[in-house]
Design brief:
- This protein is α/β, with parallel strands linked by helices and about 290 residues long.
- The protein has a single domain, classed as TIM Barrel (Alpha-Beta Barrel), CATH 3.20.20.70.
- The protein has nine helices and eleven strands.
- It has helices at about 55-65, 90-105, 120, 140-145, 160-175, 200-210, 215-220, 225-235, 265-280, and strands at about 30, 35, 40-45, 70-75, 110, 125-130, 150-155, 180-185, 215, 240-245, 285.
- The chain binds phosphoenolpyruvate (PEP) and manganese (II) ion (MN).
- Phosphoenolpyruvate (PEP) binds near residues 133 and 184.
- Manganese (II) ion binds near residues 49, 219, 245, 255 and 256.
């Protein structure tokens, strides 16, 4: 499938060679198993912030699958601000993700925080996530470049787009071309939302790089009631996919419950997203096809 064409003129930035759109004007489609990201179809990834238990994950996975997600998210190794917060279930969490994948058929994306975790994560996840706090963890970027899994590289919360593209270049320069970018909100003077979702970044990145660009409206806002609106805005602005936190019981979540959608809200959002996608000449990827 062709990459969804960039409708804006390619701006003349001096971007690193491998990520620059100049080196590949037609755009890149990254495949997570069979699912193409960066094509005409918008791909929805959803699931809990963290894997917490067998029941929490399998129930949530069942709901997001029924609601229209194509890929299941869930962190087993969690980067938490406080050392006393829930740190994730580690390998046990990865085992639960493997079982949820088997039950639903959804491929899995999960975060890798350390070079020593790349190999083990590669045995369980279909795509490795490098989180905002590790966007400039250069040894980790190099290790991700050495592995053959697709990499979901989130934007550093205080990173410029120049720094972000340079981080992505590390992975490509080390031999892995399968990189997806994810705008997840940046720090600004505004304190009423957790971060400020930088919608500008979507068309700007699409002009500057051939890599697919997805958006995380959950961390970008930090507030459940804002997530659907910003998810729709992201698709309208040209995002190739969305990463959305959903929990079967958000009020009981061990991590990021206040920004996690209830399963019913997620289903309604996906139905709305189909209309927005259609309005901008795209459609939502449907794994049931
Ligand atoms: C996450 O997706 O769970 C996460 C920790 O996100 P970020 O790295 O963007 O904060
Ligand atoms: Mn989270």
């Amino acid at each position: 499938m062709d990459a969804f064409s960039c409708t804006l003129p390619v701006a003349s930035f001096n971007d690193p060679e491998l990520v620059s759109r100049k080196s590949k004007p037609e755009g890149t489609v990254v495949r997570v198993n069979e699912i193409p990201i960066g094509g005409r179809e918008v791909v929805i990834m959803a699931g809990p912030c963290a894997v917490e238990s067998e029941e929490q994950l399998s129930e949530t996975a069942r709901h997001v699958s029924a609601g229209g997600a194509a890929i299941l998210r869930g962190g087993a190794f969690k980067p938490r601000t406080s050392p006393y917060s829930f740190q994730g279930l580690g390998i046990d969490g990865l085992e639960m993700l493997a079982r949820a994948k088997k039950e639903t058929g959804l491929p899995v994306v999960s975060e890798v925080m350390d070079t020593r975790q790349v190999e083990v994560l590669s045995g369980y996840a279909d795509m490795l996530q490098i989180g905002s706090r590790n966007m400039q963890n250069f040894p980790l970027l190099k290790e991700a470049g050495d592995c053959n899994k697709p990499i979901l590289l989130k934007r550093g919360m205080m990173a410029t787009l120049d720094e972000y593209l340079a981080a992505a270049e590390y992975i490509l320069a080390h031999g892995n071309p399968h990189v997806i970018l994810c705008e997840r909100g940046i720090r600004t003077f505004e304190t009423s939302t957790r971060y400020t979702l930088d919608l500008n970044a979507i068309p700007m990145l699409k002009q500057r790089t051939h890599l697919p660009v997805i958006v995380d409206p959950s961390h970008g806002t930090g507030i459940r009631t804002l997530v659907p609106t910003m998810a729709k805005a992201a698709v309208a602005a040209g995002a190739d996919g969305l990463l959305i936190e959903v929990h079967y019981r958000p009020e009981e979540a061990l991590c990021d419950g206040s920004q996690s959608l209830f399963p019913e809200e997620f289903g309604i959002l996906v139905a709305d997203l189909r209309k927005v996608a259609q309005a901008v000449g795209r459609s939502i990827y449907n794994s049931k096809n």
